[in-house]
Design goal:
Layout (H helix, E strand, L loop, with lengths): L1 E3 L13 H4 L5 H5 L5 H15 L8 E3 L8 E3 L3 E4 L6 E3 L1 H15 L2 H14 L7 H23 L4 H15 L2
Helix pairs in contact: 3-6, 4-5, 4-6, 6-7
Length: 172
């Protein structure tokens, strides 16, 4: 089975990072006081410390919204669709977003099987073991971002319980 996707093409020095996104990805959480500002600042600082390790990798073309919904699978191929949110980030950001959605969607056994199958076939010139060290930090970032999105919706409670559970399990 081949992985058909354009990935890891360096596209220059301009790169958006967690530093650029954190304020936007917590604005509703702050406005509605869903997470105490002191706790958000602590989480932000820990995320900065963890994800700073990505600074040694060049920005590459990333999907920006990689989830199980944007992957088509058949017997011979895996194709990634819907590149509307493509951006330059560290290569690990896309993979972590995908494993985050897997963690929300599947039970632990299925999550582990799908995650490991994807990583086995994912090709990169970089050390994949670095991903294992940073995956939870990315999951926290994405969890906060999605919780922030859900907080802006009328049906907030419907969306937030699963996300809160993942966040609590992944927090440092």
């Amino acid at each position: 089975m081949a992985l058909s996707v354009v990935m890891e093409s360096p596209i220059g020095q301009a790169c958006q990072t967690i530093y650029d996104f954190f304020g936007d990805s917590t604005s509703c959480l702050r406005e509605k006081n869903i997470i105490e500002p002191v706790k958000l600042n602590y989480i932000r600082q820990k995320l900065y410390e963890e994800i700073k390790a990505c600074d040694c990798y060049p920005p590459v073309l990333c999907h920006g919204d990689l989830s199980t919904s944007n992957i088509l699978v058949n017997a011979d191929d895996i194709v990634i669709i819907d590149w509307d949110d493509a951006q330059a980030l560290c290569w690990m950001a896309d993979i972590a977003r995908l494993t985050y959605w897997m963690k929300l969607r599947y039970d632990e056994s299925s999550y582990t099987a799908y995650r490991n199958a994807f990583l086995k076939r994912y090709e990169t010139e970089y050390d994949k073991s670095a991903f294992d060290k940073l995956e939870n930090a990315f999951h926290i970032w994405f969890g906060l971002d999605y919780l922030n999105f859900a907080a802006g919706r009328l049906d907030y409670n419907k969306h937030c319980e699963a996300i809160k559970t993942v966040l609590e399990n992944d927090l440092f």
